[in-house]
């Protein structure tokens, strides 16, 4: 049935190859990973793994034996460096690999601080790969002073872990509030109070001017004129799609590798899935940075390589763990004009509406709210906001 080469070492790549085999694809499958370990899950890196509560092997999506047993040629430490579209070859690890279908699951890259402001000093870390966290872990010890740059989910999760490990934590967010790009003020308020309650010096509307030190960072100058003594810096200022390989091959790029509704790139023999891919959504196109999207797109592409002809319908969901608080998100809140707050004991949820249409929910230690919200959004149902706000309303009744 031909040769499939999949480039990537995360959820999208792993789900694509597993789906191909489980659906009966009997051709050759080669999985090319840039890192020295099998495809692994990344969300625990900034949480359980950094905290030391999860062994490396538990990060692996499947053990090495799975690839052997299913005749998947796993090429590790093999960076894909070029695609010859005419010859249908991809260069990886110094070897030319032939393909009938090529799947790009190249993921995303962390934004780094510019070298001009000290971003290349020793002791400055990002949280994206196993190697990143392995390098950081030994210096994340009690009594050290850490500056976390960025108040998005990665920065907040890293701050929570460092606080639990006994470090002195300062977090700066240049925007006027944490989570400003992704959540309502009501959600920001909850997590601001949470972090400050755990002793984090959280500063909003304050940016980083520059880091100081010789070879290793020792201090930071902030935009409000203040200075800090620091032992390490964790940078969580967003990610960008890993699209260089596709761009160099002349594939269409639109905020990531552009694919059609079935996951196919501008070259019909090449597909893309996960963080790196932008796909049609509503009247435009979006790119989703989430485990759920990577899993679903990887499986979609596998199905369509085998002739499934299936269009992608995104069902966005996300989560974040900080201290003893679990945030679960369903839907996309883009365009919201109203937030309905529901407080039911310790469970709290924020429901995003555009006029009378439910768009998304942030559920905070509220698994029932998350599950009901997810089902409502996927079914296109919008309950009455007043009913949602009333803790006497049985949530499951809203599904009927």
Describe this structure in words.
With 400 residues, the chain is α/β, with parallel strands linked by helices. The protein starts with a strand and ends in an 11-residue tail after the last helix. It has helices at 11-22, 48-51, 56-59, 64-69, 130-136, 153-164, 185-197, 244-248, 291-305, 367-379, 385-389; strands at residues 3-7, 28-32, 72-75, 80-84, 89-92, 95-98, 101-104, 108-110, 124-126, 145-149, 168-173, 201-204, 208-213, 217-222, 227-229, 232-235, 239-241, 257-258, 270-272, 277-281, 284-286, 317-322, 325-331, 338-344, 347-354, 357-364. It folds into 3 domains: 3-109 and 239-305, FAD/NAD(P)-binding domain, CATH 3.50.50; 112-235, FAD/NAD(P)-binding domain, CATH 3.50.50; 324-399, 2-Layer Sandwich (Enolase-like, domain 1). The strands form 7 sheets. Strands 3-2-1-7-19 form a 5-stranded parallel β-sheet. The protein has a 5-stranded parallel β-sheet with strand order 9-16-10-11-12, with helices on one face. A 5-stranded antiparallel β-sheet has the order 22-23-26-25-24. The model has no long low-confidence stretch (mean pLDDT 96).
| Count of individual beta strands | 26
% residues in beta strands? 25-35%
CATH classification, class level of the largest domain: Alpha Beta
Helix share bin = 10-25%
Question: Which of globular, elongated, flat, extended, rod-shaped describes the shape?
Answer: globular
Report the radius of gyration as a whole number of Å. Answer: 22 Å
Please tell me the overall pLDDT.
Answer: 96
Question: Please, what is the CATH homologous superfamily of the largest domain?
Answer: FAD/NAD(P)-binding domain
Query: How many H/I helices?
Result: 11
């Amino acid at each position: 049935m031909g040769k499939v080469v999949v480039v990537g070492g995360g959820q999208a790549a792993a789900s694509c190859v597993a789906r191909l085999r489980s659906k009966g694809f009997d051709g050759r499958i080669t999985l090319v990973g840039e890192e020295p370990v099998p495809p692994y899950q990344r969300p625990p890196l900034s949480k359980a793994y950094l905290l030391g509560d999860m062994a490396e092997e538990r990060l692996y999506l499947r053990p090495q034996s799975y690839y052997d047993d299913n005749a998947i040629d796993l090429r590790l430490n093999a960076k894909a460096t070029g695609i010859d579209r005419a010859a249908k070859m991809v260069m990886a690890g110094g070897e030319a690999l032939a393909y009938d279908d090529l799947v790009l699951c190249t993921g995303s890259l962390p934004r780094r601080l510019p070298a001009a402001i000290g971003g290349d000093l020793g002791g400055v870390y990002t949280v994206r790969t196993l190697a990143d966290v392995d390098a950081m872990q030994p210096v994340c010890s009690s009594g050290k002073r850490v500056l976390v740059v960025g108040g998005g989910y990665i920065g907040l999760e890293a701050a929570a872990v460092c606080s639990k490990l006994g470090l002195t934590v300062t977090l700066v967010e240049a925007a006027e509030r944490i989570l400003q790009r992704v959540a309502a003020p009501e959600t920001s308020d909850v997590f601001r109070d949470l972090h400050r309650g755990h002793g984090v010096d959280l500063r909003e509307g304050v940016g980083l001017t520059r880091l100081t030190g010789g070879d290793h960072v020792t201090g930071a100058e902030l935009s409000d004129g203040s200075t800090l003594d620091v032992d390490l810096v964790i940078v969580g200022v967003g990610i960008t799609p890993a699209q260089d390989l596709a761009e160099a091959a002349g594939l269409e790029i639109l905020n990531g590798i552009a694919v059609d509704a079935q996951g196919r790139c501008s070259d019909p023999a090449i597909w893309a899935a996960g963080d790196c891919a932008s796909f049609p959504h509503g009247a435009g196109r979006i790119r989703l940075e989430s485990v759920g999207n990577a899993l679903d797109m990887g499986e979609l592409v596998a199905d369509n390589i085998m002739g499934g002809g299936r269009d992608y319908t995104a069902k966005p969901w996300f989560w974040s763990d900080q201290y003893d608080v679990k945030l679960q998100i369903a839907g996309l809140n883009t365009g919201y004009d109203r937030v309905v707050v529901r407080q039911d004991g310790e469970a709290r949820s924020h429901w995003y509406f555009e006029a009378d249409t439910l768009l998304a929910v942030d559920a905070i230690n509220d698994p029932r709210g998350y599950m009901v919200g997810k089902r409502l959004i996927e079914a296109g149902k919008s309950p009455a906001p007043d009913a949602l706000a009333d803790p006497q309303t049985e949530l499951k009744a809203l599904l009927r």
